[in-house]
Design brief:
Blueprint (H helix, E strand, L loop, with lengths): L22 H8 L1 H25 L23 E10 L16 E6 L2 E9 L2 H13 L6 E6 L2 E3 L1 H9 L1
Length: 165
């Protein structure tokens, strides 16, 4: 835990922009252009995070409705793959159901020092929402949907925008 954030009473983020003791970074950070660029980057990151969060929590789910009251609604985005991230750990676990509360179709990726574990795989966003609910029912209360295009992670916003184009 970081001492700087020790007594915060609401969600907090510590942003390190550079080092004032580094002569070139200090000059950049003290300039109007540098301050504007850093402020813009922080603002853009917060907006992107909030947009992604809004798509994955509460009642803000995008669910395709074609006017029929069936449970077979789909929102297939051909070039996008959705998964539900259920865990991230430094521990390398076999992607087997016995390691993940009985969930099948588990995959993993190593990202830096962490192994990220995913449940399900589909091009149908509404099916991904169902996978997310299934994972939550198994106890993965903080799970969330992730999207990939051509093996590269993209935001849910980007994925859903491509469905409307």
């Amino acid at each position: 835990s970081l001492w700087v954030m020790h007594n915060t009473y609401m969600p907090s983020v510590l942003v390190e922009l550079g080092f004032l003791t580094n002569k070139s970074e200090g000059a950049f950070l003290n300039s109007k252009a540098g301050q504007r660029k850093m402020a813009d980057a922080i603002r853009d990151a917060i907006i992107e995070y909030k947009d992604a969060l809004d798509l994955n929590v509460g009642d803000n789910f995008l669910v395709y409705d074609d006017g029929n009251s069936t449970d077979n609604n789909t929102l297939v985005i051909e070039d996008v793959e959705f998964k539900v991230q259920i865990a991230a750990s430094r521990k390398d676990l076999a992607p087997k159901s016995y390691n993940f509360k009985g969930l099948n179709d588990i995959s993993k990726d190593k990202v830096g020092q962490l192994y990220k574990y995913y449940f399900g795989k589909t091009s149908d966003y509404n099916q991904a929402l169902k996978f997310k609910e299934e994972a939550k029912s198994k106890g993965y209360s903080t799970c969330f949907i992730v999207a990939y295009r051509d093996g590269e992670r993209i935001t849910i916003n980007e994925a859903l925008k491509s469905a409307t184009n």
